[in-house]
Amino acid sequence: MPNVFRRPWSPVTIPGVKLYNRIINQDFSQEAVLGERLEVEAGSFSNFYRVKKSFDIVSAVIGCVATLILGGLLLIFNPVFNPGPLFFRQERMGKDGRTFTLWKFRTMQPCAEGRAVRPVNTPLEETRIKALGVFLRRSRLDELPNFFNVLRGEMSVIGPRPDAWEHAVHYFTTIEQYRYRFQVLPGITGLAQVVAGYADGQNATRRKARFDKFYVQNRSISLECLVICRTLTVLMNGFGAR
């Protein structure tokens, strides 16, 4: 693999947040440019991963219980409001380019052609989403089964959102900064999702890749807390839901 990791970092703009060299200070200004990599003190990475892993395990246990409860309710409502299978499964590309099966609650009607992945850069087929599916997507409750992936060690709560395998292969070869995301576990939520919203298509994915690269290069407990806070805000205002 080419040594892309020595190239200069691209500036990233996050509205309402200022990031400095060593700390993250939430300052609700119009925007701030992230131009420098955050410095990390010796030994802090081991502490970071310990805290992150503990958070993942606790969150996964709680999330799996919530998934079982919601799944029971959907078994009652799906036949009327969203006929079809309870779960949606899709092959995604994870850490180190490994494939894994992502689990979600199904929100769309099964495709007439029987395909599980829409062609890359093709718009979302919103006509296949019924009322119950719209509610699940806007509330992000369709993502709850992702916690089973976290429990299996295939995902983390926070990290770059994994793309469908076919899409990831395409973006890997066409978007230079896209490859950075594969250094870490993919996440249920991530910096790109809470700042840039839903990414659909080449240009949106290119922008998302810049945020993913910044997250990978600046992993810290402070940045994780920022993503969690922004995620809670997104859940309340529905930002970027599709």
Description:
With 242 residues, this protein is an alpha+beta fold. The protein has one domain. Helix content is 42%, strand content 12%. α4 links the parallel β7 and β8 (187-189). The longest helix has 38 residues, at 44-81. The protein starts with 11 loop residues before the first strand and ends in a 5-residue tail after the last helix. Mean pLDDT is 80; it is low at 1-42.
End-to-end C-alpha gap:
34 Å
Rounded radius of gyration (Å): 18 Å
Largest sheet: 2 strands, antiparallel
Point out poorly predicted stretches: 1-42
What's the overall average pLDDT, rounded?
Answer: 80
Compressed to H and E, one letter per element, the order equals: EEEEHEEHHEHEHHH
What's the helical proportion of residues? 40-55%
Secondary-structure class: alpha+beta
**What is the count of structural domains?**
1
Q: Helix tally?
A: 7
Which geometry do the CA atoms define? Answer: globular
Question: Brief overview, please?
Answer:
With 242 residues, the protein is of the alpha+beta class. The chain contains seven helices and eight strands; from the N terminus they run E-E-E-E-H-E-E-H-H-E-H-E-H-H-H.
Which structural traits does this protein have?
single chain; 242 residues; alpha+beta; two-stranded antiparallel sheet; two-stranded antiparallel ribbon; 12% strand; disordered N terminus
List the helices and strands and how they pair.
Elements: E1 12-13, E2 18-19, E3 24-25, E4 33-34, H1 44-81, E5 87-93, E6 99-105, H2 131-139, H3 146-151, E7 156-158, H4 165-174, E8 187-189, H5 191-196, H6 202-217, H7 221-237
Parallel strand pairs: 7-8
Antiparallel strand pairs: 1-4, 2-3, 5-6
